[in-house]
Amino acid sequence: MTSRGKLYRLEGIVLSRRDHGEADRVVKLLTAEGSVDLLAKGIRKPRSRKAGHLELFCKTQVLASRVAGSWDIISQAEALQVRPRLQEDFRLGTYARYVAELAIRFFEGETDPQLYILIDDVFSRLEEGADPALLMRWYEQQLLALAGFRPEWSTCVGERNGSLCQVSLHPRPDDRHPYGLDLERGGAVCHECFVSGVGEHSVRPLSPSALSWLQALQRRSFDEVAQFTLPERTAGELAQVMEQYIAYHLERRPAALRLLHG
Ligand SMILES: [Zn+2]
What we know:
Blueprint: E1 7-20, E2 24-31, E3 34-40, E4 59-65, E5 72-81, H1 84-88, H2 90-107, H3 113-127, H4 132-147, E6 159-160, E7 163-164, E8 179-182, E9 187-189, H5 191-197, E10 203-206, H6 208-219, H7 222-225, H8 232-250, H9 255-261
Parallel strand pairs: 3-5
Antiparallel strand pairs: 1-2, 1-4, 2-3, 4-5, 6-7, 8-9, 8-10
Helix pairs in contact: 2-3, 2-4, 2-9, 3-4, 4-8, 6-8
Zinc ion (ZN) binds near residues 156, 158, 165, 167 and 193.
């Protein structure tokens, strides 16, 4: 017998699920107050009434009861917004997994109401057909800022002759020389700092086009950046740059990237 505690209502987004026992699942729900693991009993039985309301990436309202010393138990669930394409399309689903993985790793259960709004927005846009690559690049900038890892793209983070450079970076399409990405210092460096910093530590070249996009992705809304076409070459460079930046801070490569890029 489980002693049932007080019932409470919770709205959240299903970030991940894992099987538990014969027919149950532990569901990780992101709410405006942080993420919480809840037990959905009997959800893997064919006739479960809860199953359709606790699909991955859907927004749902649950009625849960408190259980001392274990996960609280979901007694009822009602989907507020289902996202069938994210469940059925492997590629879109993998992007959604990447979104969820970054949110879980960078926040580790900490609370931020803005995170809930951001994830809900990104899942909805992904479901509704936004360009997934552009959306991921925009999401990374927004998430890193929320999590306190905001990269510096506007002012040079380099140091020369013992003093900070701090020049404003205004990349232009006709710039002849590359800028740089300095992982340790967490941002971009001007060409002069790039040249003097090569070989010292983790500095890699950054094209003017990539830097210009990173600035826009950080400062602008998704609707604004979506009005421009991201050139394929720049898209590839941005994906690489951000993978390095994120892996550097997480001290590991996000698992969902193996599914997307091999
Ligand atoms: Zn500089």
